[in-house]
Amino acid sequence: MADAQLSDFFNRFPMRPIASAELDAALAEEATQPLTILFLWGRNCPNCDIAKRAMMVAPERFQLADIRWFHDNVYDDFDMATRFGVHGIPVFFLFHGRRQLGKITSWPGPDAFLDVIAQQLRRISAT
């Protein structure tokens, strides 16, 4: 994927931008999706770009009806990075409502990433 397409990632792969100050209210919103993923990334972050490229190869695998996506550039939002004790990016935090279920650190590859998401969705539906 060309870098020009990568710079347009958030237009091509719709994720809601969210800032630290807005996160609690956004998580408390009534959502039809049982799982929220918060993607913390940074501009010119090579590992973040690897994750974005992988998601754009087959976006339909990641744009599931059961998932609501938020994103934040932690280079521009230090409060978000501090809030979650982020030491490396990308990192993906998983929420059910306001409750944090877990996180995926670094980019494990699309199959491993989607396996974790599927496990969390099964756990949510079992409760």
Characterise the protein shown here.
This protein is α/β, with parallel strands linked by helices. It has a single domain, classed as 3-Layer(aba) Sandwich (Glutaredoxin), CATH 3.40.30. Helices cover 45% and strands 23% of the residues. It has seven helices and five strands. The protein has a five-stranded mixed beta sheet, covered by helices on one side. It is globular. The N and C termini lie far apart (40 Å). The mean pLDDT is 93. It comes from Skermanella stibiiresistens SB22. This is Thioredoxin protein.
Key structural traits:
127 residues, 7 helices, five-stranded mixed beta sheet, 23% strand, alpha/beta, single chain, Glutaredoxin, 5 strands
Would you kindly provide a brief summary of this structure?
The chain has helices at residues 3-7, 9-12, 20-28, 46-57, 59-62, 78-83, 110-126, and strands at 16-17, 35-41, 67-73, 91-96, 99-105.
Under CATH at level 1, the class stands as Alpha Beta
CATH architect. name: 3-Layer(aba) Sandwich
CATH topology: Glutaredoxin
Largest sheet: 5 strands, mixed
Strand order, main sheet: write it out.
1-3-2-4-5
| Total count of domains | 1
Helical stretch tally: 7
Net shape: globular
Helix content estimate: 40-55%
Assign the structural class, choosing from mainly alpha, mainly beta, alpha/beta, alpha+beta, or little secondary structure: alpha/beta
Tell how many strands the DSSP assignment holds.
5
The value of Rg in angstroms is: 14 Å
Q: Extract low-pLDDT stretches.
A: none
Distance between the termini: 40 Å
CATH superfamily: Glutaredoxin
Q: Into which percentage range does the β-strand content fall?
A: 15-25%
Mean pLDDT: 93
- Provide the succession of SSEs: HHEHEHHEHEEH
